[in-house]
Structure formats: structure tokens, C-alpha cells
Amino acid sequence: MGIKSRTGKKLFVLDTNVLMHDPTALFRFAEHDIFLPMIVLEELDRGKKGLSEVARNVRQVSRFIDDLMTKNGSKDIHEGIPLTGALNLDNGERSEDELGHLFFQTQLKPNQLPDSLPGDVADNNILGTALALADMATGREVILVSKDINLRIKASVVGIVAEDYHNDQALDDLELLYSGQLELESNFWDSHSKDMESWQEEGRSFYRVSGPDTKDWYINQLLFQESEQNLEAIVREKKEDGATIEWIHDYTSARHSVWGITARNREQNFALNLLMDPDVDFVSLLGTAGTGKTLLALAAGLSQVLDQNRYREIIMTRITVPVGDDIGFLPGTEEEKMAPWMGALTDNLEVLTQTSGGDWGRAATDELVRSKIKIHSLNFMRGRTFLNKYIILDEAQNLTPKQMKTLITRAGPGTKIVCLGNVAQIDTPYLTETTSGLTYVVDRFKNWPHSGHITLTRGERSRLADYASDIL
Prior knowledge:
Blueprint lengths: L1 H4 L5 E4 L1 H6 L11 E4 L1 H9 L6 H19 L9 E2 L4 E2 L4 E2 L6 E4 L17 H15 L5 E4 L3 H9 L3 E3 L17 E3 L4 H5 L4 E5 L2 E6 L12 E4 L5 E9 L2 E6 L18 H10 L6 E6 L5 H15 L5 E6 L15 H5 L4 H10 L5 H14 L1 E3 L13 E6 L6 H8 L7 E6 L15 H9 L5 E6 L6 H9 L1
Parallel strand pairs: 1-2, 1-7, 2-6, 7-8, 9-12, 15-19, 15-20, 16-17, 16-18, 18-19
Antiparallel strand pairs: 3-6, 4-5, 10-11, 11-14, 12-13, 13-14
């Protein structure tokens, strides 16, 4: 059979960073074939040591390849290793779908590249191998897949078709991302008020509406309509013939403040309703700097930990990706090492602990609050289970979908997870707005009745911050 004889099947040459990013990439190209240059195996070998997520992914790739070679050991490796029957990590079962073959660089020598691209550089070695492969396997489309933009540019310059790895892309366009709220048309009640029911239950107002628009709603989606009544409601139940909505709590007044914090706009009011709802186990808040994500999450957490005793403590964590140069190794305990990354926590606690009891009152409140907040590093989350905790994951846009899954599956009974982030500020290499773990969970959780999402759009820091955000 071999590479040449499998005409009609595309041949994808994988860069090392694709496998480091997603270990299951070997099985994500349907019926088409995979080719691994020898330099990719060398780079995988160099990256296998350590406790980082990348090192774990590399070791998983090695296990996949070893498993494939063990099962097909009697076959000639030059003919390709069938990928059919590979482990499907989505459900833990073996897939018998028609997949392609895995080929290694056994005898193929890289083509000579221009003098400006020396072959002793790993990326250029991959380019030379892809060119030689295209010359040898005539009649087959050879495509280089890489997360490295510069490598894709160089590939296009030397005449190689190059693509980004799209399998982990949650959406084609960020504009399609679920916002968590929906504005009702002005004539909505004309077509949906027929047979409408309303009732009171434990001081809460419910309405059951029916009509064509309700089919597109999601449970825990926030609805609003700017009219005389100024409707603000949340979808509580959805059926084929209609939906049940509930009038939300008004957290914009000081009488209904949460740990002294009131909502300054509609989106913040929606966010506090989700954060304070005991039936919502997972909340995601997206928004630019200054929209109040961290302050709202902390205020709701303190209220439910200290006032309502709903959770035992608040756990705050974030991925440690520096914006500038790294500051090197830090001494101290886990919390002391994480302290430089938790400036947002410190800033918001100053706001939340402002009491009228003078210096002594503020000091006592501050000590009480800090005793209920634990700071943990994401590096030590694997294998843990959190019971009755209120977990805040800050800067979640810097996590990959796999890292996000690792964290969320740590939640035990009675635990609530709040993910905060701004997908316009991604610092992790090879992550984009559409492949971020935060985008991934917002899209995947929108159909689950115990989750909620809201995108905050209005900055509430200061007139200076708002003006700078608009013009800079």
C-alpha cells in the first residue's frame, strides 16, 4: 500500500506544537493520513520531562503511538499504521470509524531549501520534509498543520499548503458566541401572550409563555425588554410548546445589595442573579477590563460564605502567564508564591472591606474575609476534589479546553465554579479567541440547566478608564 498508493486521501504533516496542544490530534483527521517527521519525534522526546500540561500531553502522545505500534507490530511500518480502533477520549470507548494511517519519516530525506532557510533549524527541517513528501507522493494533497503562524507563513513562501489546527476551535467566529442575554422584540407579547399564565411562589413571580421564539431560548438565559414595565427575567424551564420565566431580583438598589455592592447596569444585575442562585453550579462572566467581573464574583462569594453559610470558603486561582518578563522563582508557601498574580483580588478586597467601624472595624473585617479566601495554583489542582467550595477562576481565557476540563471536573458536591475572563486579552501561546478554553465552556455549557453566562459590556471603573478604553 504505502504513502504513494493511497491516492484520494489527504496527507497531513503535523508540527510538534499540534500534538503538544492536543494529544488526540492523531485521531482527528477522519479518513485522511498523518505523517510525522523524525524531527517532530525528537522534539516530543525533549519535551516529555516535567509536570507541566505540555509535558503531560507529550507523554500521552507517546503512549498513543506506542499503543498503535504494539497492536500493529507485525505489519510493515513503511506501509503505515492503521488508526482505526483508536481510543475515543470523548466517551472512553474504542472507535471503529474509518480512519486513516499514521506514517513516519523512515527513509525520506528533506528537500534542499533556499540558503535563507538552513535545514538545521527544526521548523525548516519540517518544511524540507513536507516538500520531499509532496514530490514523492504525487497525486496526493500534502498539507502542513501547525499552530505556529510564522511556520505557516514560511510554508506558503516555499509553496507548501499550510493550515492551523482547527479541531479544538469552539466557534468559527467570536461574534457567534452565546452572550447569555436576549432583548425581546417590541411586539413580542402580541404573539406570545395568548394563554399566558402567571403565579407567585415563595415571593417570586413566574410567567408561562408560549410561542415560536421560545424554541430558541436557553435555560438560565436572561431576557429584557425596554418598555414601561422594563422587563428583566430569566428562563427557568423550557418545553416544546413554551417556557417558564421568572422575574429576576433587583440588585441595583442599596436595599438589596450583595456584601455592600449594588449592580450599576443591567448586565451586572443579571450577573449577580446567576452568582447568587444556588441552583446554578457553573457561571461564566466575560467582559473587558473594568466591567466588574472580579468584584461581583467576590461579593457574591463572601455573601454566600459568611452570611448564608452556603459554601465553606472561597478558593481563588488563575493561570500564571506573565504579560511582561517573568520575575523568576519566588520564595514562600503556595499562597505567597501566588500573591504577585493576585493583584485583582487585593484591589477588590479593599473595596469590599470598607466598613463604617473605623480602623479597628476595617482590620477585623479584613482579617475575617481573608480567613475565608484561599489562594491556590492551577499547577496543583490535578487529582483534587473540592467539597462545598466557591471557586473563582480568574483570567480563564488563558486556559486551553483540556485545562478547563481538568479544573471543572475537580468540583465535588455543593461546589460552585465561577469563570472570569476577557478573550480579547489572551497571553498563552497558540491560543486564540475561538480556541480559548473560556470560549469552549461558554459554548458547551449553554444547554445545561445548572449553568449560566453573561457578557458584561459596560465599564464601571471611572470616566478616565472608560475614555482610555474607547480611544486607546
